[in-house]
Amino acid sequence: MIFEMTERECRDLLGRTSLGRLACSQDNQPYVIPIYFAFDFDYAYSVSTLGQKIEWMRANPKVCVEVDEIADRSDWRSVVVLGTYQELTEPQYADERSHARSLLEKRSLWWQNALGERQLKSETELIQTTFFRIHVDSMTGLRATAESR
Amino acid sequence: MIFEMTERECRDLLGRTSLGRLACSQDNQPYVIPIYFAFDFDYAYSVSTLGQKIEWMRANPKVCVEVDEIADRSDWRSVVVLGTYQELTEPQYADERSHARSLLEKRSLWWQNALGERQLKSETELIQTTFFRIHVDSMTGLRATAESR
Questions:
Q1: Do A118 and B142 touch (CB under 8 A)?
Q2: Please, which pLDDT band fits residue B127 given cuts at 50, 70 and 90?
Q3: Cβ–Cβ below 8 Å for B25 and A28
Q4: If you measure CA to CA, which chain A residue comes closest to B76?
Q5: pTM of the model
Q6: Where are the alpha helices (DSSP H) in chain A?
Q7: Which of A46, A74, A110, A125 is the most exposed place for a label (fewest CB within 10 A)?
Q8: By the 8 A CB rule, do B111 and B43 touch?
Q9: pLDDT of B116 above 50
Q10: Which CATH class is domain B2-142?
Q11: What are the E-state strand segments in B51-126?
Q12: How confident is chain A (149 residues) per 10-residue block, as mean pLDDT?
């Protein structure tokens, strides 16, 4: 049986998940990559090195984040968020940036994100990171369970 | 250490993976959902019930498929495919459609796909399915290992 998830169930899944997939789009060509994030209220916070994804999201802030827990074909749930990219580099976002850093450090996600990127730097070179957050504009979720069949 | 994957390594990962994430886009709003697929030569074959994803891909066939194997932050690989949606419903695609069915049945993926969709039907109602394939236009992959550090 497949059920629509309530908003509460969607938020619970976002809250306990740290790995999702982030899709952005340029000239209607979508692009999707794994992302580590920390969900807090209406935002998914993350950090990244500069690269195609950041450039695309700067040009077009409409994004989509998908998270799921898939055990097997009869036991899974998936939440899809339509959202808006907001970069936290400018001085006026200092508070949000340190909030993002704190959330991500708490989950030990900072280092993964900085590494999990296309721009490969030598170990001695400074890795420039960009903090950003995705505002949740809408979310939908589906869950399947075998129990009620 | 992070390495670019060779095309062979990318194809190997696509070949042994059946769960990926498919992104499509409409008016530059990306949308990403889990997808079960079977990779064969330059195509990822799948099946779906009608729904937002099919409608969007009919309107804009530019898509992106991402597959990954993520063990932890220092042991992961991810392949991103930019591709083109091709629906296999018309009579001239009968061969491709039965090829898709055969590939998907071999991997027992048919039923998951038909169920894993937004359009919820009653058990007595016929579930209309749409076979399609994604042509691989380009692919890139990254892998991380702790060993070479």
A1: yes
A2: low
A3: yes
A4: A116
A5: 0.88
A6: 7-16, 52-59, 94-106, 110-115
A7: A125
A8: no
A9: no
A10: mainly beta
A11: 62-72, 75-87
A12: 93 95 97 94 90 93 96 87 96 94 79 46 59 97 77
CB atoms within 10 A of CB B15: 11
Paired tokens of B56: 């969007």
Longest dimension (CA), chain B: 57
CA-based nearest residue in chain B for residue A73: B112
Nearest to A115 among B30, B112, B144 (CB): B144
Homologous superfamily (CATH) of A2-144 is Electron Transport, Fmn-binding Protein; Chain A (2.30.110.10)
* AA letter at B63: V
The answer to whether the CB of A120 falls within 8 A of the CB of A49 is no
Chain B interface includes A70 (CB < 8 A): yes
With vertex at residue B20, the alpha carbon angle to CA B59 and CA A117, rounded to the nearest 5 degrees, is 100
ipTM: 0.87
Domain limits, chain A: 2-144
B107 Cβ under 8 Å from any chain A Cβ: no
Paired tokens of A52: 């195609």
Tokens of B25: 């886009």
Interface check B31 vs A, CB under 8 A: yes
Pairing of strands B29-36, B19-26: antiparallel
- The answer to whether B102 faces chain A, any CB pair under 8 Å, is no
B108-113 long-range Cβ contacts below 8 angstroms, 24+ apart:
B109/B18, B109/B36, B109/B37, B109/B38, B109/B46, B109/B47, B110/B47, B111/A73, B112/A73, B112/B36, B113/B35, B113/B36, B113/B46, B113/B47, B113/B48
As a residue count, chain A comes to 149
